[in-house]
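Page 42, continued from yesterday. The earlier attempt failed because a stray header line got pasted into the input along with the sequence. Redoing it now with the clean sequence only.
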Amino acid sequence: MTQFKNKTVLITGGASGIGRIMAETALDKGASAVIIWDIHEQNMHQFKTDYFDKRLLFNNVDVSNSESVLNAVQKLEATQLTPDILILNAGIVSGKYFHEHLPGEIEKTIGVNILGCMIAARAFLPAMIKRKSGHIVTISSAAGMLANPGMAVYAASKWAVLGWSESLRLEMKMLKTGINITTVTPSFINTGMFAGAKVNFLLPNLKPEKAAQKIISGIESNKVFVRMPALVYLLPFLKGILPSSWFDLFIGKGLGVYNSMKQFKGRK
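This time it went through. Structure tokens are written below.
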């Protein structure tokens, strides 16, 4: 079991959405410090204003930039804080057909969604391995298990997150480090990030509070995977037993998943 009480928690992209909700929950559960890494100054300022707590620490960090992460790590070292629980939550989406991407959009999506996880985790793993304890949580996506038109770059980044996170889990287990790895694969979460995306009763727009609570519970029980909603648990099985044409017919046409991004607007 992983406990939040008296632990140092670091959350990337933690100034808004489910990141902020998880930060508040960690504080409520008795965390000794909750460190927020985010690139949006306005969101961090709003968080400070709404939820004043001396245990909350904020730092403007671009997780896709190694130098930015290194500078933030050095600041943490000066305070003698090392994360016990690292939640890699920062993410962006560009919802358009692959050929429509503008210069820099592909690099930015890959940079934040996968390099951001790797760079941040690599910065803290040596200290975790040395003390033989720690918990790393990666927020992947159901898109990391399911190709979808209009999400080619986002899906690619989340497939990479899933493969990296699973490999890291096996490495930590093989080396007997005592470090737990949890991978989260949710469908759309109603934070504004996927505004306009089409949903249905089998793949609903998840409530942020419910999604965050499920992630926190998964961390506490050392779950390998936290998947939501229930249909996401079936994806590996369905892809394994159905021919591609049948799978496309059932998921794409039957459930309408392949049309889910046609009205995508995203967060303004």
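Notes: Residues 107 and 255 are 31 Å apart (CA to CA).
Reminder to self: strip header lines before submitting.
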